[in-house]
Amino acid sequence: MDNQEELKPVEVFAGNSWDAGLVKSMLEDAEIESFLQDEVRGTLTPFLVGSGGFGAVKLVVSSDDYEKAKQVVDGYYQNINKA
What we know:
Layout: E1 9-15, H1 17-29, E2 34-37, H2 39-44, E3 57-62, H3 66-82
Antiparallel strand pairs: 1-3, 2-3
């Protein structure tokens, strides 16, 4: 990463609190720091949360880790689609 480019928080996943927690755990296993955004709203109204819809719990990583995190999230979606 270029020294001139500043790090920014980037959303890498949005869904219900269960899926967001699972993906967060996968990111931690890959040594990628992340945090949940809007966790309370997604927990209080899980019936309104589609995959990334209104009230979704968002998983945010540093822009420096985005590419690696995206690979983890893509792997999660591939495994979900196999089931």
